[in-house]
Write a structure and sequence with these properties.
Length: 406
C-alpha cells in the first residue's frame, strides 16, 4: 500500500514539473517512477517459487515426550530474495525447547518467527526439539510468509495452509495394586468360565455344535470339509480387564467439565492398558464419549495383539470432554456383553442416581463392576455390594510430586 501511494506521489510530482516547465522536478519524478516500477516488479517475483516445508519426526508422542521438528524454506529461482519473514502457528500445548515463541492474537496460539534472506536456489533449514506437554490432537500451522522488494515498498504475503498434525497420548503412570479378579458370575473356578478367548487368534477348527455362536462359523473351512466348521480360539488364561470410562465429570450432560478429573480418567485407563498388555493380558476400552476429530464410537474391542496398545492410546488421545451417551446405559450394555472371565472396571468421577441404580441392578445379577474413583471428593452413592477403590489420593500424590510417566 505504501509503494502504491509513493508511486502516485511521484507521478504527481512529474505532472507538476511538466505543468510548470521544471525540468529537474520532472526528471526527479520520472526517475522515481522508474525506480518504483523496478521495485514493484521485484516485489511481485520475490514470493514466486518459495517452498516452505515443516515436518515432525513422528506423528504421535507420549505425554511430555520430545520430538524433532524440521522447518525449511527454499528459493527455487535464479533471483535473490532480500528478506523473508515467516510466522508459523503453534498450539500453546506444544512448546519449543530453547526457542521462545511469540504471543499471537489468536486464542491458544503462539507464533514461531524467522527473518532471513535467500540467495538464488538457496535452502535454509532449522532443527528444533519440541515438547508435547498435554494430551490431545494438535495441529501446527498454517504459516504466513511475508516478503517483497529490498525496501519493503511493495510487500507480498503468502499463506501456506498445510498443517502438521501430532497426537499426544495420555500420561501413563505406575499403578497401585488393583484387584482385577472377576467379581461376577463369570468368576467361578470351572475351566469354562475361567478362561477367555483371545479375539482374532484361531488355533484350529471343529464341527459345529448346537449353541455355538454364529460369528465363530468359518464358512470357507465349512465349504472345504462339506460340513459346518467353527473356529477354535486360543484360550487366554490371564485375567482380562475392560475399563469403562465415564467422560461426564459433572453429573449433568452439557454442563461443562472438570479438566483435572477428565485427564485423570484417561490417565488411569491408559495406565491399565499399558500394565495389562505388559503382562500379556487382553485389554479393551469402552467409553460414553466423543472424539475431537471423528464421529465414531470411542471404544476398542478386547484383545492383546501388538496393535492394541496403539489403538487404545489413540482413542484416549482423541477424547473430547463431551458425553455421547448416558454412562448407565453403556454400563448395562457392557456388563451384558462382557467376555467370560473378564473384569469390568467403571472409571468415574461422579456418581448419579442413574449410575447407582444401574450398579444395584448388576449387583443383584452378581455382575457388578469394580468402580475406580478419581475425584477428590468422597464417592457418595456407590451401593454397598459394589466393590470400589478410591484412587484419588494416589493420583493427587503423583500430581503433587510430578512423578515421571512410566
Amino acid at each position: 500500500m505504501f509503494g502504491i501511494t509513493f508511486t502516485i506521489i511521484l507521478a504527481g510530482l512529474t505532472l507538476v514539473g511538466l505543468a510548470y516547465g521544471s525540468g529537474p522536478l520532472s526528471a526527479l519524478g520520472i526517475m522515481g517512477i522508474v525506480v518504483a516500477t523496478g521495485f514493484g516488479f521485484w516485489g511481485r517475483i520475490a514470493p514466486q517459487n518459495l517452498i516452505y516445508e515443516r515436518s515432525l519426526s513422528q506423528s504421535y508422542a507420549f505425554f511430555d515426550e520430545e520430538l524433532e521438528l524440521t522447518i525449511s524454506i527454499s528459493n527455487a529461482k535464479p533471483t535473490p530474495v532480500t528478506w523473508v519473514e515467516i510466522q508459523d502457528d503453534f498450539p500453546e500445548q506444544i512448546t519449543i525447547i530453547d526457542k521462545p515463541l511469540k504471543a499471537s492474537s489468536k486464542p491458544g496460539i503462539n507464533n514461531l518467527f524467522h527473518r532471513i534472506s535467500l540467495g538464488p536456489y538457496e535452502r535454509i533449514s532449522w532443527h528444533y526439539r519440541v515438547r508435547c506437554g498435554q494430551r490431545g490432537a494438535f495441529q501446527i500451522g498454517p504459516a504466513v510468509i511475508k516478503t517483497g522488494d529490498p525496501f519493503a515498498l511493495f510487500p507480498k504475503i503468502l499463506v501456506v495452509p498445510q498443517k502438521t498434525a501430532v497426537l499426544v497420548y495420555p500420561k501413563v503412570i505406575p499403578l497401585p495394586p488393583i484387584n482385577l479378579e472377576p467379581k461376577n458370575e463369570f468368576g467361578n473356578t470351572t475351566r469354562r468360565h475361567q478362561l477367555s478367548s483371545d479375539i482374532g487368534t484361531v488355533s484350529g477348527h471343529r464341527d459345529y455344535e448346537v449353541g455355538d455362536p454364529i460369528k465363530l462359523i468359518d464358512w470357507k473351512a465349512s465349504a472345504r470339509h462339506q460340513k459346518v466348521q467353527v473356529k477354535v480360539l486360543e484360550p487366554d488364561a490371564s485375567p482380562m480387564a475392560v475399563p469403562l470410562v465415564n467422560f461426564n465429570t459433572l453429573g449433568s450432560a452439557y454442563a461443562g467439565y472438570i479438566p483435572k478429573n477428565f485427564e485423570r480418567l484417561l490417565t488411569l485407563a491408559a495406565s491399565i492398558t499399558w500394565s495389562s498388555l505388559s503382562h500379556g493380558q487382553s485389554i479393551g476400552v469402552i467409553t460414553n464419549g466423543k472424539s475431537v476429530l471423528y464421529e465414531r464410537p470411542m471404544s476398542v474391542r478386547p484383545g492383546r495383539n501388538p496393535k492394541q496398545l496403539g489403538l487404545i492410546l489413540e482413542t484416549l488421545a482423541m477424547a473430547a470432554p463431551f458425553e455421547g451417551s448416558p454412562i448407565d446405559t453403556e454400563l448395562l450394555r457392557a456388563a451384558r456383553n462382557l467376555p467370560p472371565g473378564a473384569t469390568l472396571l467403571l472409571i468415574t468421577s461422579v456418581m448419579t442416581p442413574h449410575i447407582s441404580n444401574a450398579l444395584t441392578i448388576l449387583a443383584g445379577q452378581n455382575r457388578a463392576p469394580r468402580v475406580l474413583w478419581v475425584a477428590d471428593w468422597a464417592p457418595d452413592g456407590i451401593p454397598d455390594e459394589v466393590p470400589f477403590e478410591n484412587l484419588a489420593p494416589y493420583l493427587s500424590e503423583l500430581e503433587t510430586h510430578d512423578l515421571n510417566p512410566v
